[in-house]
């Protein structure tokens, strides 16, 4: 029997939020990348989540979350006039990535807070399990 059932539930959420933080960091790092190996400017990545069941001993099922997928945001980025840029077209226009730093910062803060909340749940579950073991002595 698992004494720390909350850990199983929150571990999936922690992993999912870590992935989200990594993708947001990647988006921010590439906010000015105008040339990728695939050609063209960097395209913002988006993380989607899905529910998942965690089977416990005794037939109890709990829900957690995991990464459902990472997709590419296909909206177009800005086109700016910068004839000095190495990726400028003949008329001096440069296609920029579709990364909005304000949105990314909001996403970063949200993911960070969600990660902290799930970490708090894991710590509480651990403390409850330790107290349960102390009572059993």
Could you explain the architecture of this structure?
With 137 residues, the protein is an alpha+beta fold. It has helices spanning 5-29, 101-135, and strands at residues 45-55, 61-72, 79-81, 93-95. Strand 1 (45-55) and strand 2 form a beta hairpin. The two termini are 18 Å apart.
Could you tell me the mean pLDDT? 88
How far apart lie the N and C ends? 18 Å
What strand line-up does the widest sheet have? 1-2
Shape: elongated
Radius of gyration: 22 Å
Low-confidence residue ranges: none
* Amount of helix: 40-55%
Topology readout:
Elements: H1 5-29, E1 45-55, E2 61-72, E3 79-81, E4 93-95, H2 101-135
Antiparallel strand pairs: 1-2, 3-4
Short description:
The chain has 137 residues and is an alpha+beta fold. The protein has 2 helices and 4 strands.
List its traits.
single chain, 137 residues, alpha+beta, two-stranded antiparallel ribbon, two-stranded antiparallel sheet, 44% helix, 21% strand, elongated
């Amino acid at each position: 029997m698992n004494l720390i059932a909350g850990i199983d539930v929150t571990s999936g959420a922690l992993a999912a939020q870590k992935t989200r933080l990594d993708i947001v960091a990647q988006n921010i790092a590439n906010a000015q990348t105008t040339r990728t190996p695939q050609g063209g400017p960097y395209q913002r990545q988006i993380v989607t989540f899905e529910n998942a069941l965690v089977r416990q001993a005794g037939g109890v099922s709990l829900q957690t979350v995991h990464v459902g997928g990472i997709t590419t945001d296909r909206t177009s980025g800005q086109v700016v006039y910068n004839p000095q840029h190495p990726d400028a077209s003949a008329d001096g226009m440069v296609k920029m990535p579709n990364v909005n730093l304000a949105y990314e910062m909001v996403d970063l803060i949200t993911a960070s807070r969600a990660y902290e909340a799930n970490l708090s749940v894991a710590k509480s579950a651990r403390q409850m399990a330790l107290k349960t073991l102390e009572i059993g002595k």
